[in-house]
Amino acid sequence: MNTASRITAAEYDRLGRAGVPLADLLDIRTESLRYGQARLRLPWKDNLVRPGGVVSGPALFTLVDMTMYALVMSAVGVQEMAVTSDISIRYLRGAPAGDVLAEGRLLKLGRRLAVCEVNLYSADDDRAVAHATGTYVLPAITGD
Fold first, then answer.
1. Which of 35, 95, 97, 116 is disulfide-compatible with 55, CB 3.0–4.6 A?
2. Is residue 142 assigned to a domain?
């Protein structure tokens, strides 16, 4: 199987930031992108903290969603109208103040749905802070 992504990390960052301004505000960055595999980073900023001194859930959720979007584009190319159908996220422990890494993989790609998995880790610790699965709906191809 060809492991080359249908979009580069730099192209995805440009498209993602333009299409999802929150990703730009959070400064989410793509570190690597291959067909069906993605690694993104949420850099630490003081405004990400919540009571208890950990990274907020909404920021982590956004990182998960952007990672899944990258996985879809890695497999099908630029599909700006691919949209989240569902995401289930389990927060396993607080993410301490610091960068958070997302490691994602495409579990299944069909004609209309893409199923993804993402694990989040503190950049300074290899223990998972969250695990998520989700589904993206792909745009209909003419004639569907």
1. 95
2. no
